[in-house]
Amino acid sequence: MTLSVALLVLVVLVSLFLVLEPMRADAAADPDAAERSRLEAERDRLYGELAALEDETRRPDLERRAALTLRALDALPPAPRIGGRVRPFALAGAGLAVALTVAGGLTFVPRWQLASLSAGEAEDVRNVLALPELRRRAEASGNQAGYLAWGKAAFDSGQYDQAVQAYGSALKLDARQPEALRRLGILLLTRPDSSGQPAKPEEARQAFLLIRTAAQLAPSEPESQLLLGFALARFGQDRNALAALERYRTLDPKGRDADEMITSLRARQNEDDPGLRVYAASCASCHGPNGAGGALGPSLRASTLTRAALRSVIVNGKGVMPAYPDLKSAELNALLELLERWQRERP
To answer: Taking every annotated instance into account, which residue ranges of this chain make up the domain Cytochrome c (predicted)?
Structure first.
C-alpha cells in the first residue's frame, strides 16, 4: 500500500512538471522591464495628483508631464506575453501528463479500493479480474497447469460455471488430479442443473466417486477430507462424515469451514446413539468432544483398556478421574459400547 501511494505521488508530480515546465520556459525576459516599471509608476503618480488636484493652476503642467510619460511608454517595444506561443513540447508534455494520470488512476485506484476489503474479498476480486487472461492462456496452451490455474481462480471467486469447464478440461489430460476431482465432484453434487433441479441420484453418485477418489489420492490434503465429509453427510453417512471432518481439522487446525457441519452431525448422533449422549454429558469436557483427548483427559480412542477395566475406572474413578457410580446400567453399557467401538476404529 505504501509503495502504491508513493508511485501515485510520483506520477502526479511528473504530470505537473510536464504541464508547467513548457509554460514557464515560454516566458521570455523583458530587456526594458526597469524603464517600463519606472514610467508606469510615474504615470500612476501623475494620474493620482490630477484626480486630487485642488490648485487648477497646476493642471496644465501635470497634464503635459502625463502626456510625455504616456508617449515614452508607447515608444517602448511591446512586453513579451507570459505563456505565449504554445510550443510542440508543451503539447506533448500535456498529452503525456494526461496519459500518466489516467494510467495512475487505472493502476492505483483499484488497489486502494481493494485495500478497503477483507483479505478474502480482495483475493476474490483479483481472481475475477484475472479470469479472462487465465482462460485465454489455458485454452491457448492446452496444458494441465493452465487449466488448473484457471479452475482455481474461478472456484475461489465463485465463478462455478467456469470452474466446471476448467477442471473438466484438466481431468481430460490427467484423470488422477486430486484438486480437479474433488472440486468438480462437489460442484456437480451440490449445484442445481440449468433448470434449477438438484443432481439426479446417478449423477450424485458419480460426483461422490470423484470426491472419494480425490481423498484416496491425496488423503493428507485438508480440502480432500473437508469435501469428503460434506459428501458423506449428504448421503447420510454421519459417522464416516464426522471422522473425515475431524481429520480435516487435524490437518488444518485453523480451518473453520467444518464447524457447523460437525456440530450438526454430533447433535444428530447424540439423538440416535445413547452412548454419545452419556459421553457428551459426562466425559467430553475432559476427553474432548470426539474422545481424542482434551485439556485434562487423555485420548480414549487410543486406550487399550479392556471393557472390565473401563467399567472399573468409570464407576470407581482413578487419579484425577472422578467416579460415576450413579450411572444406570443401560447408560453405562451404552458408554462402554461407544468406547470399545472407538478402540476398534483405531488405525
So the answer is: 270-343
- Model confidence, pTM: 0.52
Residues 151, 158: Cα–Cα separation, whole Å: 10
173, 245, 175, 243: which is closest to 210 by C-alpha? 175
Q: From CA 280, how far away is CA 100, in angstroms rounded?
A: 66
Three-state DSSP class for 321?
Answer: strand
Question: Rounded CA gap, 266 and 280, in Å?
Answer: 9
**Residues in a beta bridge with 318:** 321
**SS3 state at 296:** coil
* Contacts for 339 with CB less than 8 Å, ≥ 6 apart: 275, 291, 300, 303, 310
Position 274 scores a pLDDT of 86
Measured CA to CA, the distance from residue 52 to residue 42 in angstroms comes to: 16
Asked if 301 and 342 count as a contact pair (C-beta separation under 8 A), the reply is: yes
Question: What phi and psi, each to the nearest 5 degrees, are found at residue 321?
Answer: -75, 120
AA letter at 123: E
* Average pLDDT value for residue range 51-58: 79
Q: Cell triple for residue 210?
A: 470423484
Question: pLDDT digits over 168-220, tens only?
Answer: 999 999 999 999 999 999 999 888 766 777 778 888 899 999 999 999 999 99
Residues facing residue 321 across a β-bridge: 318
Cell 481429520, residue located: 247
Query: 218 near 224, Cβ under 8 Å?
Result: yes
Q: With CA atoms as reference, report the closest residue to 269 among 294, 240, 248.
A: 240
CA distance 143 to 133: 15
